[in-house]
UniProtKB/TrEMBL annotation:
GO terms for molecular function: semaphorin receptor activity. It holds the Pfam family TIG. InterPro entries: Ig-like_fold, Ig_E-set, IPT_dom, Plexin. This is Cell shape-determining protein. It comes from Streptomyces radicis. GO terms for biological process: carbohydrate metabolic process. Residues 2-81, 83-162, 166-250, 252-331 form the IPT/TIG domain.
Length: 331
């Protein structure tokens, strides 16, 4: 009976060939040829149930068969895959201690089995066929970054280890903003030249503009509660235990009632404004006129009505935005 083959391990490999493929089956003793498509492969008969073959160069999908004096086996499909191509690294440099995230861009990353920074393996996540996020291992000097898949190993792109100190963050302006984000925050510190990322907690900021070694502006992302702002440069990420890196997301204030909601045209009425998210109130308006006020708690603001006439909308403003309005009537 002719030989019969049941599995190929692996069933795919690089177009340049050269990888070892274990062919399992029966009746393999005395095999006289192994073919990948029309191409002959070098091989070693390990046993009656196993052959170790070296895949020849090829392309696309081909049929693997084993021939013996008893005939030719059934065929199994072997797929040639192209090697990945690495186009760029962001950032292309980082601290000798490693640990920073590097985004690799290119093609053919699906099924990646390894990422190397020089000879050092990196921990990585395949985001898509065109993007990988890797954590740079420790290193020094300039090294070649490569990606390995079943199709082979990519070209190398240079990554440079630097001895630049990590940035420090000393202060923010402002320290408060709306939960929807979108406001511009100025970040003060040292070593900010070359900033590659700004994070508000775990969320990445956008609109990063480096104003020099001591100042960066960024657009705050949406968020809640109080978070720590960090800056990342080729030297590393800022230490969260130094300076004043805290940023608080403030909900939009909402008004529920005014007590009283009427007063004399001459002003001077103390009005209790009830609502929510009032702690960070920075302005109170009766119509277009600003009023003096005191934020008593998150639910109460006491304001003194300015002079006015008729019915006017009362609003409260905070870093979270402007509240709804309630009517106050001058008598």
């Amino acid at each position: 009976m002719p030989p019969a083959i049941s599995t190929l391990n692996p069933a795919q490999g690089p177009a340049v060939g050269g990888n070892q493929v274990i062919i399992s089956g029966t009746g393999l003793i005395g095999a006289t040829a192994v073919h990948f498509g029309a191409s002959s492969a070098a091989y070693t008969v390990v046993s009656g149930s196993s052959i170790r073959a070296i895949a020849p160069p090829g392309a696309g999908q081909v049929t693997v068969r084993v021939t013996s004096p008893s005939g030719t086996s059934n065929g199994l499909t072997y797929t040639y895959t192209t090697a990945p191509v690495l186009n760029s690294l962001v950032p292309g440099q980082g601290p000798t201690s490693g640990g920073n995230q590097v985004v690799l861009m290119g093609t053919g990353f699906t099924g990646a089995s390894a990422v190397h920074f020089g000879a050092a393996p990196a921990v990585f996540t395949v985001n898509s066929g065109t993007q990988i996020t890797a954590t740079a291992p420790p290193g020094s000097g300039s090294v070649s970054v490569t990606v390995t898949t079943p199709g082979g190993t990519s070209n190398g792109v240079t990554y440079t280890y630097t001895t630049v100190a990590a940035p420090t963050l000393t202060d923010l302006d402002p320290h408060f903003g709306p939960t929807g984000g979108g406001n511009t925050v100025t970040i003060f510190g040292t070593g900010l030249t070359g900033t590659t990322a700004v994070h508000f907690g775990a969320q990445a900021a956008t609109g990063i503009v480096v104003g020099g070694d001591s100042q960066v502006t960024a657009t705050a992302p949406p968020g809640t509660d109080t978070v720590v702002v960090t800056v990342t440069t080729p030297g590393g990420t800022s230490d969260t235990s130094t300076g004043n890196p805290y940023y608080t997301y403030v909900p939009q204030p909402a008004l529920a009632s005014l007590i009283p909601d009427t007063g004399p045209a001459t002003g001077g009425t103390n009005v209790t404004i009830n609502g929510t998210a009032l702690t960070y109130t920075d302005e109170v308006f009766f119509g277009a006129a600003p009023a003096s006020f005191a934020a008593i708690s998150d639910t109460i603001v006491v304001a003194t009505s300015p002079p006015g006439a008729g019915s006017v909308p009362v609003t409260v403003h905070s870093p979270g935005g402007t509240s709804n309005s309630l009517a106050f009537t001058y008598e």
